[in-house]
Amino acid sequence: MSEVIVITSGKGGVGKTTTTANIGAALSLSGKKVVMIDTDIGLRNLDVIMGLENRIVYDIVDVVENKCTYSKAIIRDKRFEGLYLLPAAQTRDKSAVTTTQMKHLIHKMEEDFDYILIDCPAGIEQGFENAVAAAKKAIVVAIPEVSSVRDADRIIGLLEKHDIKDIRLVINKARPKMMENGNMLGIEDMLDILSIDLLGVVPDDEDIIIAANKGEYVSSLVKSLSGQAYRNIALRLNGENVELLNLKQSFWQKLFKNKKGERL
Amino acid sequence: MRMFFLNLKIKSKNVAKERLSTVIKSDRINLKESAIIEKMRKEISGVLSKYTDDTTPEVKILCAGGQCVLSAQMPFKE
């Protein structure tokens, strides 16, 4: 049986899709078979982040409408062993899929994968309902800003209402210097407010933007700090005890990091 | 000097622009035409599936002068 995890946040623009793609890639690097499902129907983006936009033929709506099997619709990322995407439809809206259809689809997929990662759209409407319908665990992505933390708190309440007990926090776009100077909410502040377990902290890193522009995964870059943060998150999901990264890089680390863009 | 320019890396910004221009062309036009392109992709995949095991061939779209051309490149079955 697979782990079915929804990645959500409530607020848009905090990095749900990037987090989904990079955790998925990191899990597949650790030898797991992973499928990522984009549930943002009408505004799909996971395919672009993964660099698979030209390979979409069938999508999630085709699958739930029985126009094709899910195995025909999923796209295998040829760069990784065991990494797949089930894309969202771009020409339909969130009402094209119901929660019952979603549960049925994920139930069918559970036998074939170690991890099913569901990329949830922003908001708390039908798209959110579909994304959480079959999830057993949740990752809440939040950035150290008041608006994001407020929305994350609301989302945690809704996830608990959906009987999802295992909810963990990923703090994204963290700036250690600002946190240290007291100009940004700190990790402890966010954990105090949200009262859920911390899964990982990802620094605000230009490597993430560069990789996403190219349709690559920062988690596969050997010397990238954010890549290491995503790989650590994957290890923690696999049950390993990994300490939090030191997000502050020395001058020499910054100078020599990822010079050749080495990949795992 | 020439060697210096030859060794310049392609900026990720340029890669992003190129990729987005393809995606946006098929998305933005309007839902009706976008749905036609989706249908064409399925037809191409249907035809190509006779010659390959890949169910999701890479299909690129080139749009110019009000016309769109879809092209696919994929390995054939041995």
Key features of this structure:
heterodimer, A: 264 residues, alpha/beta, Rossmann fold, 12 helices, 39% helix, 17% strand, globular, B: alpha+beta, two-stranded antiparallel sheet, 18% strand
Question: How would you describe the overall organization of this protein?
Answer:
The complex is a heterodimer of chains A (264) and B (78). Chain A starts with a strand and ends in an 8-residue tail after the last helix. Chain A has an 8-stranded mixed β-sheet with strand order 3-4-2-5-1-6-7-8, with helices on both faces. In chain A, α1 packs across α11 (225-237) and α5 (99-109) packs parallel to α6. The radius of gyration of chain A is 18 Å and the shape is globular. Helix content of chain A is 39%, strand content 17%. The mean pLDDT of chain A is 93. Chain A has one domain (3-255): P-loop containing nucleotide triphosphate hydrolases (Rossmann fold), CATH 3.40.50. With 264 residues, chain A is α/β, with parallel strands linked by helices. By secondary structure, chain B is an alpha+beta fold. Helix content of chain B is 51%, strand content 18%. Chain B has 3 helices and 2 strands. Chain B has helices at 2-6, 12-28, 31-48, and strands spanning 58-64, 67-73. In chain B, strands 1-2 form a two-stranded antiparallel ribbon. In chain B, a hairpin with a 2-residue loop joins β1 and β2. The radius of gyration of chain B is 17 Å and the shape is flat. Classes of the chains: A alpha/beta (264), B alpha+beta (78). The interface between A and B is medium-sized, with 22 and 22 residues.
